[in-house]
Amino acid sequence: MGLGASTPKTSAGELKKEIAQRTGLEPEKQRVLFRGKEKEDKEHLHSAGVKDNSKVLVLENPASKEKKMQEMTGSKKKGEEMTASKEMKESEEMSKALAAVAGVRKEVDKLSERVAALEVTVNSGTKVADKEFDVSAELLMRELLKLDGVEAEGEAKLQRKAEVGIVGIEVHWILLVDNVHILHHFLHSFIASFAI
């Protein structure tokens, strides 16, 4: 997880406390998201599917941001309210974008497992229908198009860019596995022709 004392048995609440120590953002002002879903304080991260190197998103709760803005200004002038409202809207848009990226990440994780299963099948010498490679590549490309439709700024933009890279790697990997599959069966047929 990248945080000092965090283990798979760490709860979302414990993670918030550790983040609070490092950032100063109080735990009740944080939202912990994994695969696009907010986690309750008592929920253990491992039961939610968090493993080593999983990406867990921690956001400042938009309501606490607005309250903090009001406290900092000390007054509620119309111009200041409009600024706070604009920042709130931007925060909500970022949350939506981050959730959309997390949704794509969840689907790409599933597709990665599918690609890995294809690789194992090909490496064992089992013939795989070309359609399996085409479908996997098509599904990955659809996730890439979903990412392309996500309008994001700041952290959400960085996460979208990282996820685009991951999808690109998966597409290249499926093409590589497909080529290994084709080569394997070509060599098998070539060798079989000499066995006669």
Query: How much helix is in the residues?
Result: 55-70%
Which strand order do you get reading across the main beta sheet?
A: 2-1-3
Q: Summarize the helix and strand pattern as letters.
A: HEEEHHHH
Q: Tell me the span between the first and last alpha carbons.
A: 57 Å
Shape: elongated
What's the β-strand tally?
Answer: 3
Rg, Å, rounded: 23 Å
Instruction: Give average pLDDT, whole number.
Output: 77
- Which residues form runs of ≥5 with pLDDT under 50? none
Can you summarize this structure?
With 196 residues, the protein is mainly α. The chain is 66% helix and 6% strand.
Explained architecture:
There is one protein chain. Helix content is 66%, strand content 6%. It has 196 residues and is mainly alpha-helical. A three-stranded antiparallel β-sheet has the order 2-1-3, with helices on both faces. The model has no long low-confidence stretch (mean pLDDT 77).
How are the SSEs ordered, and which strands pair?
Elements: H1 12-23, E1 30-34, E2 37-38, E3 57-60, H2 62-73, H3 78-123, H4 130-148, H5 154-194
Antiparallel strand pairs: 1-2, 1-3
Helix pairs in contact: 2-3, 3-4, 3-5, 4-5
Descriptive labels:
elongated, 66% helix, 196 residues, mainly alpha, three-stranded antiparallel beta sheet
